[in-house]
Amino acid sequence: MTEAESPDRAALRGSSHTEWGAGVIRRHHQRKQLDREAQHLAPGASEEAAIGRRVFAEGRGPVLTDLDGNQYLDFAAGTLTQSLGHTHPEVVEALTTQARRLWNVHDSATPDRAELLDLLARLLPGHLDTYALFSTGAEVVEAALRVVQATAPPGRNRIGALRHGFHGKTMGARMLVQWDVGHQAFAGNSILGYSPYCYRCPLDMEFPSCGVRCASLVRKHIADKPNVSALVFEPVLGAAGVIVPPPGYWEQISDACRSQGVLLVADEVLTGGGRTGAFLASERLGIEPDVAALSKGTANGFPFAVLAGRSAVLHDPAAARPGAYASTYASNPLGIAAARATLEVIERDQLVERVRVLGELLDARLNALHARFENLGDVRGLGLLYGLEFVTDRSSRRPAPEIARAVYATALDLGLRVALGGHILRLAPPFTIDEALLDEGVKLLEKAIEQVVA
Ligand SMILES: Cc1ncc(COP(=O)(O)O)c(C=O)c1O
């Protein structure tokens, strides 16, 4: 490694891409393995895996290497999980040390747990001072729903949620979801309010002349329905394509919830841990949730989740019955070790602030792409979380999933991995990436779009 060279750039040397996007893609070993797997593997993989057809063998920082030795800049950070990049040395060290010591003692205390709880107390807003530990996003959302159910005053038997929200694939979480992943919508007990989807405004209005009418309707809904116990929401709606609310949206809704005694339950499974340039997206948007669920960014890709809440809520005897916050992998020592190492690096290296700086750069670069390509209908995001919406043309705004899929596949062939869902691509590079590689990633994306739409 030369003196001026970063470890990430050193990881790229030896790549099949002598220059990004100019390499020959080797596929032989990957095809062989995927054909073998197909004999036994159930279908139903993500679009990303099904279209990409890659076998990833190694990851280091922002770089992935496949089984044939091709390399990729990973702007999906695993699955929006590896905020520190792949196999961050301090997380690897914490996990391997713990792996030699102890793996599972149910939810009994282990030496790292107190450290982790103190760390969470430093990183999270002061009023969220009580925590329960879990292992996946859906699991922590279910735990939040149990708290809501247990503490709901008599007669308050409904839960509010937002259209376009996503909260996981377990049945409780799916009751909050109006659109679903390949299944019929299932809105059992929830009341769904308008999300702030300005690009496809359900009311056919324009911000700011709309006066954020979607929020007034949610507010009215809450005020008119005395049986709502909580509003479960993503502050920035991630899976639906990074929908960022306009100013005023959350102020109106939070005020209504406060005055009606409706609990604010922030699903920060995707946004928590610094992704949007604040430790919680709620902080960036001026929301003070009573309960927040975090997962993806907390342990750098190791299964881990945190339910954070006001002391009065999580200590409520109705919620905190014996075993209420326990499960097979809750308080898992390996998860705790990974989370502690990840969050210590985020705190020590001031990575949340770094996300804001890099986020501005990414915003400028992506807006230039938006100006250039007619089929890129909308570009929006916050911090290092961006959504790119592909359309057949700007006047109809008709979703163009075939373009998104082609851009995704072309970008992979050029050496860039992003996240794909329908007609939307999402970008979520690791917080540790340098400016030059961030730029290179956007250039590869530009080249991919150019190849598809030219
Ligand atoms: C906001 C949000 N909540 C919950 C989940 C479910 O998490 P998991 O896939 O870990 O169950 C996700 C997953 O993408 C998510 O984005």
Structure, explained:
The protein is α/β, with parallel strands linked by helices. The protein folds into 2 domains: 7-74 and 351-453, Aspartate Aminotransferase, domain 1, CATH 3.90.1150.10; 89-348, 3-Layer(aba) Sandwich (Aspartate Aminotransferase, domain 2). The chain is 39% helix and 15% strand. It contains 16 helices and 15 strands. It has helices at residues 7-12, 28-38, 47-52, 77-80, 89-101, 111-123, 137-151, 171-174, 213-224, 249-260, 281-284, 311-314, 333-348, 351-372, 401-414, 435-453, and strands at 56-60, 63-66, 71-74, 130-134, 158-162, 190-193, 228-233, 263-268, 291-294, 305-309, 376-382, 385-390, 416-417, 419-421, 424-427. The strands form 3 sheets. It has a 7-stranded mixed β-sheet, sandwiched between helices. A 4-stranded mixed β-sheet has the order 1-2-3-13. Strands 11-12-15-14 form a 4-stranded antiparallel β-sheet, covered by helices on one side. Helix 5 packs antiparallel against helix 13 (333-348), helix 6 (111-123) packs parallel to helix 13 and helix 15 packs across helix 16 (435-453). The protein is globular, with a radius of gyration of 22 Å. It starts with 6 loop residues before the first helix and ends with a helix. The chain binds pyridoxal-5'-phosphate. Pyridoxal-5'-phosphate is lined by residues 136-138, 141, 166-168, 234, 238-239, 267, 269-270, 295. Residues 136-138, 141, 166-168, 234, 238-239, 267, 269-270, 295 line the site of pyridoxal-5'-phosphate (PLP).
